[in-house]
Amino acid sequence: MMMLKDVRDYIASLDVAEHVYMGKLPDKEDKSVGVYNSKHQNAYHTALGGPSLEGYGEKYVTLLVHWNKSPRETEKATVELFEKLRTVRDAKVNSETIKFFQPLYDIQDVGADDAGIYEMVIEGAFIFEKKEGKETWK
Fold first, then answer.
1. Is residue 74 within a helix (H) or strand (E), and if so which, with residue range?
2. Residue 137 falls within a domain, yes or no?
3. Is 22 within a domain?
4. How many CB atoms lie within 10 A of CB 35?
């Protein structure tokens, strides 16, 4: 089962940001990416025949790119991360296999925070391989 820490570790492995964190931090550092569980409602999916027949799972996340005081550099870093995510196939992280990343929307510009640091958001689902409970029809 893919957890938020697995997503954080994968994002860190892409070497786009200087800092990658999950959850809230009181002092966000420049050139960082925050990884959060998505708060959007998404349809629940299960395989016909029950969970033991599922071959993949979905981990919905929100990625906050908190960059610097340049909107141009912030957009460039966000697009770089977005493109790396869109092209991922069968990536291994910890004990999980990410089959691919499914963006839910285009990149969202959320403007600057109170300190004038520009931020952008990527929403999507990591589609991962389920290992436990795999069965085949007999």
1. helix 71-86
2. no
3. yes
4. 21
- List all residues 6 or more positions away from 12 whose beta carbon is below 8 Å from its beta carbon: 20
Q: Which of 31-45, 92-106, 117-131 has the lowest mean pLDDT?
A: 31-45
Q: Has residue 138 been placed in a domain? A: no
pTM: 0.89
For the chain, the domain total comes to 1
Range in 9-23, 48-62, 94-108, 119-133 with the lowest mean pLDDT: 48-62
Q: At 75, which CATH number? A: 3.30.2000
Q: How far is C-alpha 61 from the chain's CA centre? A: 5
Short-list 65, 100, 104, CA closest to 86: 100
Count H helices and E strands in the chain, helices first.
2, 7
Contacts of residue 74, Cβ cutoff 8 Å, sequence gap at least 6: 65, 67, 68, 118, 119, 120
